[in-house]
Amino acid sequence: MSVITSDELNLLIEQTYKVEKEFNELKASYAHLQDTVEEVVEFLPNAIWILDKNGEIFLQNSQAKSLNELFELLESKKNDYEVGFNSKSYLIKCSSYKDKVMLSATDITEQKRKENLATMGQMAAHLSHEIRNPIGSISLLSSTLKKRVLPENVAIVEEIQKSVCRIERIIKATLMFSKGVHAHKAPFMWSELQDALNMAVGYYGYTKDITFIFPQQKFMLNADKDLLEMLFSNFLTNAIDAIELDENDEGSVQILYEKDDKFHKFYIYDSGVMIENAKELFEAFKSTKVKGNGLGLVLSRQIAEAHGGSVELLSGDRKGFEIKLGV
């Protein structure tokens, strides 16, 4: 039996420490690499699952952890397909490397919404073009008919004209939404716009006793008068519809005005029913009222933005909106 000398023992101990050191360095390097991979996966904008050869989750980011139920619906052997989950749409992609499989889920709900809006906008614009000519004929014929009918039938013709006017407003809004809002500014007095709004309200028609309170100040706006007429008409007709749905036999619509160095500010209040779903107010083709087409407030906000301003729903007990227009 050979005896290990002290030099050999020291050498063995030294080699052992060296191996241990290299092992610890390798372990630390692996841990660092693993942390780096986890950080990269975590920073990715979509949900990521990495599966081992048994189909078990080897690695996942926080987005994936929050979508455990979605993971149960995925197919690891199918690539580039869509899945609907919790009112959202996800694009699923699958890739493999050696014995690992990676699944990714990207939320494409907003993209799908924009695609749908674009399609709806194109269809609506096409229909509006097709409807415009016959509506123009009805408008012309009703004006002629009003001059010839018996006095007791004039009210019927006027109702036809009001309905035609409503359709014309919808057509105009639809075409503007499809083409985009472009403001052609020129100076004019508020009183000119107020006269046009009074006429628009008269054509709209309503059954209740509604009081309209407009700003009494004399001031000038440098803006696109036709666009602002559409903007304020949208709010006035929305207010009328809300008052018509209210239990009271009368109501009021009030527009207040103030100005600072940057903006003309208008505050519009009405006594009608409250808004049920504020989240859908500025969503195209989604209306919070029965008679709406879902474009009025969307276009109103776009018109305000085209004038360097904004439209916002006011919070508080009193139902109202703030409209800002750049000075």
Please characterize this protein's 3D structure.
The chain has 327 residues and is α+β, with helices and mostly antiparallel strands. It has 3 domains: 103 residues, 2-Layer Sandwich (Beta-Lactamase), CATH 3.30.450; 72 residues, Helix Hairpins, CATH 1.10.287; 147 residues, Heat Shock Protein 90, CATH 3.30.565.10. The protein contains 8 helices and 12 strands. The strands form 3 sheets. Strands 2-1-5-4-3 form a 5-stranded antiparallel β-sheet. A hairpin with a 2-residue loop joins strand 3 and strand 4. Helix 4 runs antiparallel to helix 5, helix 6 crosses helix 7 and helix 7 runs antiparallel to helix 8. The longest helix has 40 residues. The chain starts with 5 loop residues before the first helix and ends with a strand. The mean pLDDT is 84.
Class from secondary-structure proportions: alpha+beta
Q: Note the run of SSEs as H and E.
A: HEEHHEEEHHEHEEHEEHEE
CATH class of the largest domain: Alpha Beta
- Low-confidence regions: none
Question: What brief labels describe this structure?
Answer:
Beta-Lactamase; Helix Hairpins; Heat Shock Protein 90; alpha+beta; 48% helix; 23% strand
